Amino acid sequence: MNKGPKDILGELPKVNKTTIKRLLSYLKAYKLHCAFVFLCIIVSAASGALVSLFIQSLIDDYITPLLRDSSPDFSGLLRAVLTMGVIYLFGILATLFYSRTMATVSQGVLKKIRDEMFSHMQTLPIKYFDTHTHGDIMSHFTSDTDTMSQMISQALPNILSSIMMIVAVFFAMLYLSIPLTLFVIIALVLILLLIRVITGRSGRNFARQQQAIGKIDGYIEEMIHGQKVIKVFNHEQKAKEGFDELNEILNDSSTKAHSYANILMPTMNNLGFVLYVVIAVAGGAIALGGVTNFGLSGIGLLTLGTIASFLQLSRNIINPIAQVSQQITSVVMALAGASRIFELLDEKPEEDNGYVTLVNAKYNENGEIVECKERTGIWAWKHPHSDGSITYTRLNGEVCLYDVDFGYTSDKTVLHNITLYAEKGQKIAFVGATGAGKTTITNLINRFYDIADGKIRYDGININKIKKADLRRSLGIVLQDVNLFTGTVMDNIRYGKLDATDEECIAAAKLANADGFIRMLKDGYNTVLKGDGSGFSQGQRQLISIARAAVADPPVMILDEATSSIDTRTEAIVQRGMDALMEGRTVFVIAHRLSTVKNADVIMVLENGRIIERGNHEKLIAQKGQYYRLYTGAFELE
Prior knowledge:
The protein has 19 helices and 18 strands. With 638 residues, it is α+β, with helices and mostly antiparallel strands. It has 3 domains: 13-345, ABC transporter transmembrane region fold (Up-down Bundle), CATH 1.20.1560.10; 357-394, no CATH class; 399-637, P-loop containing nucleotide triphosphate hydrolases (Rossmann fold). The strands form 5 sheets. It has a 6-stranded mixed beta sheet with strand order 12-15-16-9-17-18, sandwiched between helices. A 4-stranded antiparallel beta sheet has the order 4-3-5-6. Strands 8-7-10-11 form a 4-stranded antiparallel beta sheet, with helices on one face. Helix 7 (178-225) runs parallel beside helix 10 (304-345) and helix 14 (502-511) crosses helix 16 (538-552). The longest helix is centred in the middle third of the chain and has 53 residues, at 236-288. The protein is elongated and about 125 Å long. Residues 6-13 and 634-638 have low confidence and may be disordered.
């Protein structure tokens, strides 16, 4: 069954008064700027209305008398024109000042929003990134913030300026002629009803457009990341079809949105010309008929200057209304983007109710563990108690799981009754088919996810009581998928311990057997990596990743198929470095090649989220169970 745009994009982001209030709250830090902008807008609007009113005086008091005078004196007319020029200049300068000021305000607001988004993003759980495409998340920082920038720097001041102009022009019209003003009001009501229909349809499609942009960004990011796989499996046409489907939705929503938006100004301009002609005819008829005119300025006949001034005012009131209606589309786009941004900001951060922290420690003369600032190689868990006392427990690296159940969603359990004991210095290996639950167990140990039932204890402490940052600081992780960052090789190794010296980084590289190939690079440890280290082989990238874990010197290591991307010869070299790295540490190994876990103290065989066998290599081989079948099968393949 073909999916429609709603099925692919999901529900539109909700735009309501709360979104508007929340967005405008960011302007509180710029109260003085906004006050200055408001003042400039008043000056600009007043100058526009005054110039239109001045036309009446210019025609009736200067031009008409000069036409009747046989020897005209143009000095008065010249002064009047210069006065109009000064009024125009004030209006131009006011517009210039508020435009520049709003540019400063908009960029300041967007900087704050981007800072908040990025800071909040760092607090989100891994689950959020597993359930949202990276491209869609990135679109919050690009297209969504761009629409907000346009609204704050252009749309809002233009709307406010137009409203002020409408108010100023309305009173100027009342000053000249109340009957003609009432005629204009009736015409404007009809025009506004038309505008409401057009902007309503345009707004819905602009909101859909922003949503489609996020989906396309996510799809493109995914396709770029998997470009090699696409090439290998000749998936180009299928990838193109997927993009075309999303692009068609974006094209449809954008076309509809801009079609309605683009017809708005021509429609308003043409209606303005019609109103201009009707006012000219009605005004001329009133003047020729000798009908008495009345306004705030008094009662009298409708003069040529009054009609000319009123016609100018009619143009000055139509243009701002057109501006407001056109800017509404920018506001709708921005509010749709703001709603998506606020959805990100409203995502619940990763919960951390832990109070036990990890500290450097040493033994005092009484043989007691005490906290210290310097790094001694001894770490301890610091327990604050309700009575104000503090106790310290040495970090040994004992990890125990008791009857643990877990599911990524509440309706599907992927781990069942997992129980294991990892003593200090033990090497625990997990083997099993893909999807058996090996990586999930390590995700629970470092609390990327929290368990549904059971207990996990670290040195006898429930890991829920340990602050997540301190828990993860005690765990060194080497993943199968290596992430390197733009910077030097030294910077990437130091990522594991930001205060590590160059000597410590080099020592870690030697431990991981990475020192040899690093020194062969053009700039050695100062070689700059770009594009996630794409210029390096997978094995070299993995060696840097292992060195990164080594420099942190953690008491517990998690190796998630760390050597799966390394060839057999390199694996032997890396394995020696990893054996040195694992010395004296508790190690959890997720095995890709069963030959790498032969020396593990305990091997856990998982199947469908359950531990079906456990023991060392010799014991499991003797049992001739699942491990035996996996091992002999792997051995035959080699």
